[in-house]
């Protein structure tokens, strides 16, 4: 069953997501970010997101020097230095440090192409492949 917003006409799978959208659209929900107007349920999540715009460095890897604006991305990165790859593809046995990396990888095997170019409608199984593809249109 799908739920449609009376405010913006978007469709949502759950009533909870619809409620969040409606309160955000009517101004009753959490405040929007000042730069991109993206909304978050918790102010702390908005603050972390804000750092992605300001490029404020909150975490720095002592091993390689790579910097991060969010703690969760920093913790995930640290696993690569400890070779912690606990998420293994059942099909090809490739291992990943984060579940969402494995989930994205699995699309290669299923041939699902969920990432579609808004310019030419070409579809890709990986978001990074679509990002690379957009460079063709900007040259």
From TrEMBL:
Residues 36-58, 59-86, 87-114, 114-139 form the C2H2-type domain. Gene3D superfamilies: Classic Zinc Finger (3.30.160.60). The gene is ZNF473. PANTHER family: TRANSCRIPTIONAL REPRESSOR PROTEIN YY, YY2 TRANSCRIPTION FACTOR. This is Zinc finger protein 473. InterPro entries: Znf_C2H2_sf, Znf_C2H2_type. GO terms for biological process: developmental process. Signal peptide: none annotated. GO terms for cellular component: chromatin; PcG protein complex; transcription regulator complex. GO terms for molecular function: DNA-binding transcription factor activity, RNA polymerase II-specific; RNA polymerase II cis-regulatory region sequence-specific DNA binding; zinc ion binding. SUPFAM superfamilies: beta-beta-alpha zinc fingers. Keywords: Metal-binding, Nucleus, Repeat, Zinc, Zinc-finger. It is found in: Nucleus.
């Amino acid at each position: 069953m799908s739920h449609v917003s009376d405010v913006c006409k978007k469709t949502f799978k759950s009533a909870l997501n619809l409620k969040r959208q409606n309160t955000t659209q009517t101004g009753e929900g959490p405040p929007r970010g000042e730069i991109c107007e993206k909304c978050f349920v918790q102010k702390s999540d908005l603050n972390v997101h804000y750092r992605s715009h300001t490029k404020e460095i909150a975490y720095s890897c002592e091993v390689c020097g790579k910097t991060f604006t969010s703690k969760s991305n920093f913790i995930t990165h640290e696993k690569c230095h400890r070779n912690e790859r606990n998420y293994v593809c059942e099909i090809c046995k490739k291992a990943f440090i984060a579940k969402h990396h494995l989930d994205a990888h699995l699309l290669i095997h299923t041939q699902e192409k969920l990432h579609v170019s808004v310019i030419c409608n070409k579809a890709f199984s990986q978001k990074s492949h679509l990002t690379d593809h957009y460079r063709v249109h900007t040259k």
